Amino acid sequence: MYLPLTLLLGIALWSQKLGATDAEMGDEPIEAVFRVGVLANHGVAEAKERWQGMMQYLSARVPGNRFEVVPVDFDDMREQLLDLRIQFIVTNPGQYLSLSNEMPLSWLATMRSRKHNGATYAIGSTIIVRSDSRVQNIEQLKGARIVASDPQALGGYQATIGLLNRRGLDAANFFADVRFLGFPLEPLVYQVRDGMVDAAITPFCTLEEMVGSGLVRREDFRIINAVKPEGYDCEISTSLYPNWSFAASDKVPARITQAVTKALFELQPDSEAAISARTLGWTAPISQLTVIKLYEELQLHGRGAEPLKLALGWLKANREYAIGVILLLLAGMLYHLWLEYRFRQKSDSLLAAERSLRDKELMLERMQSAAVLGEIGAGLAHELNQPIAAITQYCEGGLQGLKFRALESSQDYELLRKIHTQSLRAGAVVHRIRSLLKRQRGESELLELPLLIGDTLSLLERELGGLNVVLHREQTGSPRPVLGDSVALSQLLVNLLKNALDALAEVSRPRHILLRLSFEPRGACLIVADNGTGLLLEENEVLTSFTSTKRDGLGLGLAICRDVVGRHGGKLSIRNITPEDALPWQQGCLVKVCLPHSRES
Fold first, then answer.
1. At what angle do helices 319-404 and 411-437 cross, to 10 degrees?
2. What distance in Å separates the CA atoms of residue 419 and residue 428, rounded to the nearest whole number?
3. What does pTM read for this prediction?
4. What's the pLDDT tens digit per position in 348-357?
5. How many CA atoms, within 13 angstroms, populate the side-chain half-sphere of residue 169?
């Protein structure tokens, strides 16, 4: 269960000073200590001296509580209010309005100035130049070097910017250089006196107070746009705005706020507290309309560009810190870029390692599949070799018998001759398979490719007719033999044509196959093109063992073709048909096989 924030504040305040003695505060025990933040216009010591009497007065008028003065600047006032380190503030109405936008504040009273017949409008700006300055009016300050106390000072920089805006001047780009020196205010006037700047923007009556204290001579200075309102003791350059406000945080108990407000209203002008605070007393809060209008003007006339100018001014005044911050940011950015670079390097390395691992796993699976297939193939080749040999012997016996009976022209003889031819072919295929499994080279001989193609097409004559395939044969160049393994090359052609037939079986349009044989100086090239479905995978994937797009395919056909072409010193490529191929159809697959000519030819 959480305690209310007001109760926590009360506990914190009580715990600070529960040990106070009766001598410190009459006979009443101290319940809490309240801290009052006041703007230290002329330094911390002067602020404490000015407001200490007022704190004693409030402590006496609110029995059981003690009030302490805390000199602050604008930024400290904001931070300490947010952190609950101060509970009351005495500040200009501009700062009050700014703070009230961030946190709840109760406006208790407006101060009556001890000068100017107790006026409640006693905040404004005075623009001071040297008496020998060439500057005679506001317009001549364009491009000047200026000093001011703080960008948040209503009776200083803000009132002057409002004056420039009302004169129709571009306040955001009017001055060449503006430096904010903070508090106390005396160094602003000294900067003008010593010729370090062209002008100083000070709160109303600052020059007169310094002259009265003997710090400077009045004849050394001149006030730009000087006006002395009736009943006032000092000259001013800008409009007048309401005097300082006394405000309380919403965390202060209501009874304490009421007691403080009553004590402020009852403060007598001749009391020590009023004299030391340089006030004739306090009155009910007066309208802040003029301040609100000023802030609206500042926002209307390019106030959005002011933060950039303020930042540049701070950078100029604090170059060492600015350089350090910039170097720190640059180092952080470089470190971030280095980390990102290293991260990408590691990521690329991990991705490469992952791809390599997948490739090795796939290779291992294929090697295992190849080993299993090798064992199966060796077994089949061994088992098939005997029945094929038996068929060949039976055919030879039958042929001899028919020849002995002089029946060579009979249909039976012709049929047995064809069976005998195919059995020899089957035996050669089995022998070739066994040679491949044993990694043995086949027997090479001089081959006429047109005859080899014709023999192969005769084997597939039934399949071509069954699909109504229109076969186109073309031949260019002077025929020359190639040195190769007839069984292997025949198997290559069968695989390529079977693949084309399988692709054509899946289309309903007229089916075409092109066999284009060209004899070139370096060798013979055969193109097998169809108008089927085309390739669904990349060339490297299609030519890889155990990769197939067919439902019942083993993925060995094209891999074997590649192996056969490679053993003959040739090249094999496969791709989809493109318009550049100049074929009658624009869809399908194109396989190109190039074999070198025999040196003997």
1. 150
2. 14
3. 0.45
4. 888 888 887 7
5. 18
